[in-house]
Write a structure and sequence with these properties.
Strand content: under 5%
Number of domains: 1
Mean pLDDT: 91
Low-confidence stretches: none
Structural class: mainly alpha
Order of helices and strands: HHHHH
Largest sheet: none
């Protein structure tokens, strides 16, 4: 699309949607949300930007190919699942820091698992959508 309204709106909506996706990510282990939903919201923000400004402009904005986020996110999730095993606890057991961190709340292995899922969902969604868009 080539409308001035959509281009202007996407300029302001991209950072706002990314901030909202991080909010949903961080509240995910207390309330509904988490890495999957937050990742989808972030992917939607980049898709909206691509619709308004063109795919090449959005790819330059991202600086890296979204496919590189998938193995990095998978590694974070795997390490967060294996970390409790170092403490003689079963795989994927929640391990929490005793004192809460300001803004984030309780810091634990579930948050790092969600961050990994967040990166995998952004990478997979945008890789699929950008690949489909490039073939047109």
């Amino acid at each position: 699309m080539n409308t001035i309204i959509l281009k202007t709106a996407s300029k302001y909506l991209l950072p706002l949607l990314l901030l909202f996706s991080i909010f949903v990510l961080l509240r995910g282990h207390y309330l509904p949300g988490g890495g999957f939903v937050g990742g989808l919201i972030a992917a939607i923000a980049f898709v909206l930007h691509a619709f308004a400004n063109g795919l090449p402009h959005t790819q330059r904005l991202m600086r890296i190919h979204p496919g590189f986020l998938m193995p990095f996110g998978l590694a974070i999730s795997a390490v967060s699942g294996m970390f409790p095993m170092l403490l003689n606890q079963p795989f994927m057991t929640g391990v929490w820091k005793k004192d809460p961190v300001p803004v984030i709340g309780s810091l634990g292995s579930a948050l790092f698992f969600d961050i990994g899922v967040y990166l995998v969902v952004i990478g997979a969604s945008l890789t699929i959508l950008f690949t489909i868009s490039e073939t047109r």
